[in-house]
């Protein structure tokens, strides 16, 4: 979720009124904590309380092709942010608090997670909360606060925290303009399935007692993955706290149907379905005939695709293929991540294998064990995942009983 987090947050370094730039100082801070204190003291009591703005977001796919969209942002100090993705009337929203994120799609809450925003400490909280709290907030990103060095960027003096030399371009670090005392660059470590990011904040303009970065570029592996450009910045506007309350949205549950592929024709590496398997695939489609399926996930192997084919044709869906064959936990995490992020709040059919289905059930958050014996093809699992990650499991059967299928547990 991190790329989404970046949207607009970096723009919120501004406020309205007369400009008062902190005096430049050549005195090096003793460590990162001293620099954070310097940032806090320079603007304490004068930084904006709220800010809104419009963001043009350009996201680059792996092949480099761009996708441009407009997001609308609202920030409430010290650490609450609302992002409306696209037209606000569409109801696609992300809300961040100091330690959590809430994702809304189509006006319904589909996901809640402990997902701290790495930028909120720098663009707002650091100027509002006690220094000790800011240091606690920053600890998650593993900046080595004992390392501080001087450098230049864009012809301006900066302090760099987290890296001992200019050759270190991978350690978690943040760069701070020595005069303005605002962040100009951040290198963030990889987190979960997200890559390490090198974020530059350019095009700073004066705005009241603060500054605003009007051009922000996020890079991964040397390639721009997201660029943000800001306009219509308004500070210290009246914003009702209720607009940041995720409880205003009704809850949507993610429903996942999981089955093993149907009976296969032979024992080759990539067989088609047997006659019994074709009957079972049709039985699966019949079982789901009155259910709206929003997405289907299969592996690259024919037997999973053919099992899902009748359902896909009836629903008019092209399945998402997530290859299996590598580390089992990695595959399960990839499937669960796709379901819970891309299709949160939707109804999804997953067709896997006797070893992958139990692992996927576990990755979706179900604690009770699931096993599928080699001769068993008739298990039908339903996992329902709440926005806060709580998951429930229901086991049932479908189609013709498998030859060696035990009673349901």
List the topology elements.
Blueprint: H1 2-6, H2 32-43, E1 50-60, E2 66-76, E3 80-85, E4 93-96, E5 101-105, E6 108-113, H3 120-123, H4 131-138, E7 148-153, E8 156-161, E9 173-177, E10 183-188, E11 197-207, E12 210-220, E13 223-235, E14 254-260, H5 275-287, E15 295-298, H6 302-315, E16 320-321, H7 328-342, E17 347-352, H8 356-363, E18 379-385, E19 391-397
Parallel strand pairs: 14-17, 15-16, 15-17
Antiparallel strand pairs: 1-2, 1-13, 2-3, 3-4, 4-5, 5-6, 7-8, 8-9, 9-10, 10-11, 11-12, 12-13, 14-18, 18-19
Helix pairs in contact: 5-6, 7-8
Condensed summary:
The chain is built from eight helices and 19 strands. The protein has 409 residues and is α+β, with helices and mostly antiparallel strands. Strand 15, helix 6 and strand 16 form a beta-alpha-beta unit.
């Amino acid at each position: 979720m991190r790329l989404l987090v970046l949207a607009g947050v970096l723009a919120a370094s501004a406020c309205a009124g007369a400009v008062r730039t902190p005096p430049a100082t050549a005195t090096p801070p003793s460590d990162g904590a001293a620099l954070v204190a310097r940032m806090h003291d320079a603007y304490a009591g004068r930084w904006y309380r709220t800010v809104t703005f419009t963001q043009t977001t350009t996201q680059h796919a792996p092949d480099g092709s761009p996708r441009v969209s407009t997001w609308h942002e609202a920030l409430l100090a010290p650490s609450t942010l609302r992002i409306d993705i696209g037209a606000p009337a569409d109801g696609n929203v992300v809300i961040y608090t100091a330690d959590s994120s809430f994702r809304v799609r189509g006006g319904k809450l589909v996901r809640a997670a402990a997902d701290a925003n790495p930028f909120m400490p720098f663009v707002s909280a650091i100027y509002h909360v006690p220094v000790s709290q800011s240091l606690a907030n920053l600890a998650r990103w593993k900046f080595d606060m004992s390392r501080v060095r001087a450098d230049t960027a864009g012809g301006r003096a900066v302090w760099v925290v987290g890296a001992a030399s200019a050759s270190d371009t991978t350690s978690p670090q943040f760069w701070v303009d020595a005069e303005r005392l605002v962040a100009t660059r951040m290198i963030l470590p990889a987190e979960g399935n997200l890559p390490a990011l090198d974020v530059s904040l350019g095009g700073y303009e004066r705005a009241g007692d603060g500054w605003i970065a009007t051009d922000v570029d996020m890079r991964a592996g040397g390639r721009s993955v997201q660029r943000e450009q800001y306009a219509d910045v308004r500070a210290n506007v009246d914003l009702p706290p209720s607009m940041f309350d995720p409880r205003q949205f009704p809850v949507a549950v993610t429903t996942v149907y999981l089955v093993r592929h149907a009976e296969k024709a032979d024992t080759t590496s990539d067989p088609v379905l047997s006659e019994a398997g074709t009957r079972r695939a049709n039985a699966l489609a019949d079982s789901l005939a009155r259910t709206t399926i929003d997405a289907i996930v299969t592996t690259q192997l024919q037997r999973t695709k053919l099992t899902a084919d009748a359902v896909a044709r009836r629903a008019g869906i092209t399945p998402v293929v997530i290859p299996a064959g590598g580390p089992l936990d990695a595959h399960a995490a990839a499937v669960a991540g796709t379901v819970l992020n891309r299709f949160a709040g939707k109804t999804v059919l997953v067709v896997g294998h006797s070893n992958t289905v139990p692992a996927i059930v576990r990755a979706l958050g179900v604690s009770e064990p699931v096993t599928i014996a080699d001769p068993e093809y008739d298990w039908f699992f339903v996992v329902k995942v709440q926005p806060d990650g709580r998951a429930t499991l229901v086991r049932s059967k479908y189609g013709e009983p498998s030859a060696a299928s035990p009673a349901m547990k």
